[in-house]
């Protein structure tokens, strides 16, 4: 067998979320879509802002089609990068320019490229469990070694003692995802300050450079004005991996960016390495039409009040029935303690009631399920009696 075994295995292994999604489609054809309470996928349910559709139509009518559909420079359209840098400057008070911004095909691309740009074979990359399952794949692709730090189980904030113990001379990067998938938790400023102090200390101790990679597709999805610290303001060696997939509900359009902090050690070379990593991975450039859309709509965002209403209905009802979960301040996920040790067994029991949730073992934590509440409000309301029956069945 001469083909690559790692990619073969990856291709063969279906993600649990995809499996559930396929099952959901099959079940819907049997009993009707309205009778299947599928909470598996993190696909935005809120429409993109009207400005986006208007801008697309306007661009198609008025702009030169070679600009809209041709290649841009590998780093991205200069005008778009300037708009993004200005927006970061204004919103977060960071002195950054277009030369620090690299346009990508969404957060997955931003992460793959950033990791490839900084990690050498055998370097360690620390993530916090629960974490987005694809981190395993991305770190592996960069020939790095995934190191897992566990969170405080009552709050799902970072456990600084555990984290400190996980940093070694080989640590090259730490990935922080806040608001978090799957917990919905936003790391507090206090937590972030502790993490950054540990990183500063460890860099000195090992005379090394450790990059903080901020995975931020959910930055704009926060409820009740919760503060999401901008990591460049707390730690110089920061690389922000941003995406418009969730903030503008454009996951299928594949658009985002990498922002390398101008204060990072050897920042210019880190940026050049990002360019080289993008090139070596064959990205060529981010979608041109959507770079033009972002140039005009960089500060738009979806109506987050719709997600907030969903969160409130679901969180209030589930906790009233007796389910245990941390109230999420952001993203569109509820991370719920399964009603038995084995999250898969709980998933099967819930499935008998046509409720589809995701067991979180692959997110690095056992005994929890994720409920993606980026669905129509009706689905949430109609699912509540089933959630009630499930817990009553367990309590019998
Ligand atoms: N990071 C996290 C934490 C995510 O939840 C996702 C997608 O759900 C991604 C990255 C990838 O996002 P994108 O669609 O922008 O590639």
Task: Describe the protein.
The protein has 14 helices and twelve strands. With 396 residues, the chain is an alpha/beta fold. The chain has two domains: 138 residues, Aspartate Aminotransferase, domain 1 (Alpha-Beta Complex); 248 residues, 3-Layer(aba) Sandwich (Aspartate Aminotransferase, domain 2). The strands form three sheets. It has a seven-stranded mixed β-sheet with strand order 2-8-7-6-5-3-4, sandwiched between helices. A three-stranded antiparallel β-sheet has the order 9-12-11. Strands 1-10 form a two-stranded parallel ribbon. It starts with a helix and ends with a helix. The mean pLDDT is 96. It binds pyridoxal-5'-phosphate. The site of pyridoxal-5'-phosphate has 13 residues, from helix 6.
Question: Can you count the helices?
Answer: 14
Q: Low-confidence stretches at least 5 residues in length (pLDDT < 50)?
A: none
Bound molecules: pyridoxal-5'-phosphate
Radius of gyration: 21 Å
Largest sheet: 7 strands, mixed
Total of domains: 2
Order of helices and strands: HHEHHHEHEHEHEHEEEHHHEHEEEH
Write a brief caption for the model.
This protein has helices spanning 5-12, 16-31, 50-62, 65-69, 78-92, 106-118, 134-141, 160-166, 189-206, 267-280, 288-297, 304-321, 343-351, 377-395; strands spanning 37-38, 101-104, 124-129, 145-150, 171-177, 211-215, 238-243, 256-260, 333-337, 355-356, 358-359, 368-372.
